[in-house]
Design a protein that fits this description.
The chain is α/β, with parallel strands linked by helices. The protein has 16 helices and twelve strands. The chain has one domain: Aldolase class I (TIM Barrel), CATH 3.20.20.70. The two termini are 37 Å apart.
Length: 381
C-alpha cells in the first residue's frame, strides 16, 4: 500500500498501522475504557443529514473563516497533539509545514517534540500553544511568558485532563514514555525494524517545552507520572480567570462540554472554547462534541468563538459542524495517521483531500461561502 493509494481517513489509518510498531499505533488509535466515546464521536455525524439547495450559481467557493482573531483559508485546523516525533521523525515540523501550505492554524503541545520557538520562526501561519495546568504556578506563568515571547497568537488550556484516562491498549502493550514494554510489546517493535532505524538515526527524542521538568532518559519522570504528579486536579475557575487576565489576548479552553461551563468561560474573558472529549481518550461515556454543539452555540456563540473536535473524518462532517454554528473544526487523528504513514507528504495529502471534499460539498450544497451555511441545511433523524 502506497501514499498515492490513500483516499480517505481509513486508508491513512491502515498505512500507519502497517508502518508503526503495534504499541505506538495503539497509542494513537486507542481510547479510554471500552472506547465507546471514541466510536460515537464519528457516529454522531451520521445521525445528521445534509439538505442541499440546487441552481445557486456556485462556480467559486470561499472556504475562509476567522476564528479567535485569526484568518484561516480553510475551516479546519491541526489541533495540538503530543509526542509527534514518535510517530514520524519529522513530527511537528511536518504538520506545521502542511498547515502553512493550506493557510490554516496549527497547535503545539506542551508535550510536543519540537520547540514552539523553532516552529514560530519557520512558519507565519497562526500558531496556538496548548498547555496543562501545573501545581507549580510559577511553571504555568513561565510557560505563558515563553509562548508570548515566541509570538504565539492563541493560548489554549486543556481542561479535561486533570488526570490521565484509562487507556487499556497501552496497559496491555506497556506503552509508556520512557518505554516500559511488555514482552508482546517488544515483539511488535521487532516486527517493524524500519521504524526503529528511523528513530535511532534522527535527533534524540525530547520534549523541549518541558525539558527542564520532565526527563525522557529513564530518569526522574515519565509521561504517566507527569499527569499524576505535576498536574493540579484542584484547578478551578478562579485559577483560569487569573491566567486569562495575565495572557491578555486570544485565550481558548479546550475540553469544555456543558452549557454552564461555556457560559462561565465567556464570563471570565475567554475568546474561544473547543467542545471536545479528548478524542474519547479521557472520560468514556462522555457526550460527543457534535451532539453538544447546537446548545452551546445558542448559549454563548455571540460572545466566544465555539469550535469542536473529535471524530471528524470527512469534509461533510466539517460542513455539518459549521452549519450548526462551529467557527472551525479541529483535527487530531485525521492528520496523525498520515504523519505516521508518510511524514509531511502524508499530512499534505490528507489536508488537501479534506479541503477538496469541503469545496465539493459546498458546491453540491449550493453554498458559495462558509457564512451561507446554517441549520436550514440540516435535518436530524
Amino acid at each position: 500500500m502506497r501514499l498515492s493509494n490513500c483516499h480517505n481517513f481509513h486508508d491513512f489509518r491502515e498505512l500507519a498501522r502497517r508502518r508503526l510498531p503495534g504499541p505506538i499505533f495503539d497509542y494513537i488509535d486507542g481510547g479510554a475504557d471500552d472506547e465507546v466515546t471514541y466510536r460515537r464521536n464519528t457516529a454522531s455525524f451520521e445521525r445528521c443529514d445534509l439538505v442541499p439547495d440546487v441552481l445557486r450559481g456556485v462556480a467559486n467557493v470561499d472556504l475562509s473563516v476567522t476564528v479567535m482573531g485569526q484568518r484561516l483559508a480553510v475551516p479546519f485546523y491541526c489541533s495540538p497533539t503530543a509526542l509527534q516525533r514518535l510517530f514520524h521523525h519529522q513530527g511537528e515540523r511536518a504538520v506545521a509545514a502542511a498547515a502553512s501550505q493550506y493557510g490554516t492554524m496549527f497547535g503545539v503541545s506542551s508535550l510536543g517534540t519540537v520547540s514552539l520557538e523553532e516552529l514560530r520562526k519557520a512558519y507565519s501561519t497562526p500558531q496556538m500553544y496548548q498547555f496543562y495546568f501545573h501545581k507549580d504556578r510559577g511553571l504555568n506563568r513561565a510557560m505563558m511568558s515563553r509562548a508570548r515571547e515566541a509570538g504565539v497568537e492563541v493560548m489554549m488550556l486543556t481542561v479535561d485532563s486533570i488526570t490521565g484516562g484509562n487507556r487499556e491498549r497501552d496497559l496491555r502493550t506497556g506503552f509508556a514514555i520512557p518505554f516500559k514494554l511488555t514482552l508482546g510489546g517488544m515483539l511488535q517493535f521487532a516486527l517493524k525494524p524500519m521504524w526503529g532505524l528511523n528513530y535511532v538515526t534522527h535527533e534524540r527524542f525530547s520534549l523541549p517545552q518541558l525539558d527542564q521538568h520532565v526527563h525522557m532518559d529513564g530518569g526522574t519522570m515519565s509521561i504517566g507520572r507527569y499527569f499524576t504528579e505535576m498536574l493540579d486536579p484542584a484547578m478551578n475557575w478562579d485559577d483560569v480567570a487569573e491566567m486569562v487576565q495575565e495572557w491578555n489576548g486570544q485565550f481558548c479552553l479546550k475540553g469544555v462540554m456543558s452549557v454552564g461551563d461555556a457560559k462561565r468561560a465567556a464570563e471570565i474573558g475567554c475568546t474561544g472554547i473547543v467542545l471536545s472529549n479528548h478524542g474519547g481518550r479521557q472520560l468514556d461515556g462522555s457526550r460527543c462534541a457534535f451532539d453538544q454543539l447546537a446548545e452551546v452555540v445558542d448559549a454563548v456563540g455571540e460572545r466566544v468563538d465555539v469550535m469542536m473536535d473529535g471524530g471528524c473524518q470527512r469534509g461533510t462532517h466539517v460542513l455539518k459542524a459549521l452549519s450548526l454554528g462551529a467557527k472551525a473544526v479541529g483535527l487530531g487523528r485525521f492528520y496523525l495517521f498520515p504523519l505516521a504513514a508518510a511524514g509531511q507528504a502524508g499530512v499534505e495529502r490528507a489536508l488537501g483531500l479534506l479541503r477538496a471534499e469541503i469545496e465539493r460539498g459546498m458546491k453540491l450544497m449550493g453554498r458559495a461561502s462558509i457564512s451561507q451555511l446554517s441549520r436550514d441545511n440540516l435535518r436530524f433523524r
